[in-house]
Amino acid sequence: xxxxTPNLALILLTSSRTWPDPKLLEDTLLDVxxxxxxxxxxxxxxxxxxxDGGDSIGDVWAIRHGVPRRRRPADWDGPCAANxxxxxxxxxxxxxxxxxxxxxRRNQEMVDEGPILVVAAHHANSSGTADCMRRAxxxxxxxxxxxx
Length: 148
Known about the structure:
Blueprint: E1 8-15, H1 22-38, E2 43-48, H2 54-65, E3 69-71, E4 90-91, E5 97-98, H3 102-112, E6 117-121, H4 127-138, E7 143-146
């Protein structure tokens, strides 16, 4: 006898690295989980960009509640995409080269995975969070934005 695969709602968390209110974010994720149950899902799966700040808060919350998670870190040190402009790579504080568009590529990849909702914890004009929200809006994915 096989166990049925749970019907999980994929939730994309995009967040500023400086997100200052863990309780607000955790309460929002709990509400989203509850809403998914009310809408006939067996639970949620939380996907995030595996960055400091709100992504880390969401990851710890998911572990604490037994919620499956998908971590999608940007490949900053990896090769550039074919559409990257020539000589655009930069150096970080440690002197290593990186592609400044890696976060944008990762955001599009997360949107392409088809989440049913984006939770956007936007703070301090985070360009990465704003980019992910723009991509989700273009894809027709609802966005639940929280701010402090």
